[in-house]
Amino acid sequence: MTKRIEAANARNRPAGGFPIDLRFLRLAFAALALAAGGLAMAQKADATAGRNAKAGSEPRLNLAINEGGAANADYSETIFRFQEFAELVEKTLNMKIAVVGARDRNRLKENLKARAYQLLLARPNDVPAEAVRDFGYQVIATAKEPSQTWFVVTQDSPLRTITDVKGRTIVTPDQYSNMWRVASAMLRDNKIDMSREQVKSMRDQAAIGWSLQSGFFEVGVINSISGVARTWEKNGGRVIAKSRDLPNMPFIASPDVTSAQVAKLRAAVVNLDQSEQGRAILKKIGLTGFQETQNKALLDFLAWIGDLEVKQP
Fold first, then answer.
1. pTM of the predicted model, to two decimals?
2. Cα distances (angstroms) measured from residue 206 to each of 228, 232, 281
3. Where exactly are the structural domains of the chain?
4. Is there a contact between 265 and 94 (Cβ–Cβ < 8 Å)?
5. Which uninterrupted H or E stretch holds 238?
6. Facing residues of 99 across strands?
7. Starting at the edge strand that comes first in sequence, how are the strands of the sheet with 20-21 ordered?
8. Is there a smaller number of Cβ atoms within 10 Å at the N or the C end of the chain?
9. Could you give the residue ranges of the DSSP H alpha helices within 114-177?
10. Under CATH, what is the fold of the domain 149-242?
11. What confidence tens digit (pLDDT) does each residue in 191-210 have?
12. Considering the domain 2-145+247-304 in this protein, what is its CATH number?
């Protein structure tokens, strides 16, 4: 039993997450001191070891969870919140699932390229979209509620439309994040080059709202499904621009997952909102439901925002 848990840790550590076998989740939470020692040992894992999961005596798939820069939960909280969702995947495929909290964006992309993760559920939509385009992954489903990127201002701001943003101070989520890329595309479509504007980045969207209300910036960029967005207009703020509807929380599968398995997973998650138990799972992970989505939706999204060009300082 111990060897099996250690093997799962060694396979899944490279994304920066702390994997726990679902069958031993409660035991692991009851022994956090021992888990700390396991984490140190897991740090020595090879980045591509996850691809060899099916070489063991029992079939196993790695499910990575990425909640984006706005998520402040640690690895154990992420795994606890998605426990029932992962158990649904286990039951649907009749295979063991190792859950990984994948927080680091660059490591996530590296491990998707190496196919270390057979499944990914991610709030940022650009990374899974690139995995579909570049690494042969396929979309299982996306959240029913689409997301949007909003440009927001305070109630007393003189700014009325996105064209008024030019020359103003702007605060956005992390530089090169999916929302930063969407904001850049929105400005580009209005003939504004974001690289020439006064832009600062913050990881937490609540901090973006606070800094805007405190007068440190003139314009903010937030996600429509974030907590600050849901109360922005209620609290007197204004939205001066909204992006098109964007794919939200893509659930994707690597080429190692068969078409039959993808079909089973798609049916299982799309029907979650049809039962009380399924709705409880959705509520725990912050969604109202899943919908069937084709690869094209993510590819069209990437074509619009354009390729990411990381500029060296």
1. 0.79
2. 6, 11, 26
3. 2-145+247-304, 149-242
4. no
5. strand 238-242
6. 20, 63
7. 20-21, 96-101, 60-66, 119-122, 251-253, 138-143, 290-291
8. C
9. 126-135
10. D-Maltodextrin-Binding Protein; domain 2 (3.40.190)
11. 999 999 999 999 889 999 99
12. 3.40.190.10
